Amino acid sequence: MYIGHLDEATTREDIIDYMAERNFNMVKECTALRTRGRNKAFKIAIPAAEKGTVDNENFWPKGVTFRPYEF
Question: What is the CA radius of gyration of the chain?
């Protein structure tokens, strides 16, 4: 999954902590991606069966982009 339009100070740990605060502890991978400009973006790997939990606009803060990650 791609997560983007994050503040430039956002870290891998911030993403994992944010998800854990929402009772989602199944992150298999969280990798920072190169971006243009100052915003940060991450590739997150989660179990396919759990996709519906985080592929939801109510899970992420307003303004965060989330979508399937395209390899």
Answer: 11
- Which secondary-structure segment (H or E) carries 66? strand 65-67
pLDDT above 90 for 1: yes
CA distance 42 to 10: 10
**CB of 16 closer than 8 Å to CB of 30:** yes
**Structure pTM?**
0.90
Quick one: CA torsion of 62, 18, 1, 54, rounded to 10 degrees?
-70
| Sign of the dihedral through C-alpha 4, 34, 26, 7 | negative
